[in-house]
Specification:
- By secondary structure, this protein is of the alpha+beta class.
- It has one domain: Nuclear Transport Factor 2, Chain: A, CATH 3.10.450.50.
- Helices cover 36% and strands 42% of the residues.
- The chain has 4 helices and 6 strands.
- Helix 2 runs antiparallel to helix 3.
Amino acid sequence: MRAIRILAAALCVWAVAAPTTAQNQSAEAQAVLAVEDAYVAAELSRDELALRRIVDDQFALNRNDGTTVGKEAFVASILRLNMVGQTISERTVLVQGDVAVVFATTELRFASDTAEPTVSRLRYTATYRNRGGAWRMLALHMSARS
């Protein structure tokens, strides 16, 4: 009987803290995903003003080599990209107060002058925070997805 109570309690905790999917989104989760969609559009169009508005001043990109990059270097690197497309899948969001974490897979397509376009398939975690009523990207980590 005790095991059943423990299992029931664990399921209740999981249900409250489970990431939000497209079928079950709170208004805050929808707002976070709208900002993330705006970020992707700004990334593709290399819209510097939108990138600077969406990316938090305290932003950090956590690279696979263990180094981190701040907002200025991150925005500059995006502006140099020759990205021509991006498809996001497997996206879920977890919102806890003024912090949200998005987990997703993305397929990035880059143009090349000398070869066929290249494709990078990545799994990423993006952290957002609500500052002054606006969600901003605070941190990002991406790694290769097979």
